[in-house]
């Protein structure tokens, strides 16, 4: 499920033309708004936090709660269904198109 979400978020960001990187380890995922790989604090600090903030609030308005900082990870759990993941990807695509 985590891979499905990660692939969907990357696809939605690419479709919206939004520079992004996604870090994922198991069920933990973080979406960064930046062109270069995020591997440490210096590379993470170059991310577009204002864009992340706009995206976060748009997602929240759609009923999808992500961590409020791109320096935190979200977790996919056994409670999440394929429908939940699909709804999240759909909301992310709309939010990314607006940011």
The fraction of residues assigned to DSSP E strands is: 5-15%
How many domains make up the 3D coordinates?
A: 1
CATH names the topology as Aspartate Aminotransferase, domain 1
CATH architecture: Alpha-Beta Complex
Order of SSEs, N→C? HEEHHEH
Biggest sheet, spatial arrangement of strands = 1-2-3
The CATH superfamily is identified as Aspartate Aminotransferase, domain 1
Helical amount? 40-55%
Tally of helical runs: 4
- CA-atom Rg in angstroms: 12 Å
Low confidence ranges: none
* pLDDT averaged over residues: 94
Largest sheet: 3 strands, antiparallel
Structural class call reads: alpha+beta
Structure, explained:
With 99 residues, this protein is an alpha+beta fold. It has a single domain (2-98), classed as Alpha-Beta Complex (Aspartate Aminotransferase, domain 1), CATH 3.90.1150. The protein has helices spanning 2-16, 41-44, 49-61, 82-98, and strands at residues 21-25, 28-32, 74-75. A three-stranded antiparallel sheet has the order 1-2-3, with helices on one face. It is globular, with a radius of gyration of 12 Å.
What layout of secondary structure does this protein have?
Blueprint: H1 2-16, E1 21-25, E2 28-32, H2 41-44, H3 49-61, E3 74-75, H4 82-98
Antiparallel strand pairs: 1-2, 2-3
Helix pairs in contact: 1-4, 3-4
């Amino acid at each position: 499920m985590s891979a499905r979400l990660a692939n969907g978020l990357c696809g939605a960001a690419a479709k919206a033309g939004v520079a992004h990187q996604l870090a994922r380890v198991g069920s933990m995922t973080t979406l960064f708004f930046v062109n270069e790989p995020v591997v440490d604090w210096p590379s993470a600090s170059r991310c577009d936090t204002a864009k992340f903030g706009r995206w976060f609030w748009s997602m929240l308005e759609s009923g999808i709660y992500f961590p409020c900082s791109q320096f935190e990870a979200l977790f996919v759990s056994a409670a999440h269904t394929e429908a939940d993941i699909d709804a999240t990807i759909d909301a992310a695509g709309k939010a990314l198109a607006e940011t």
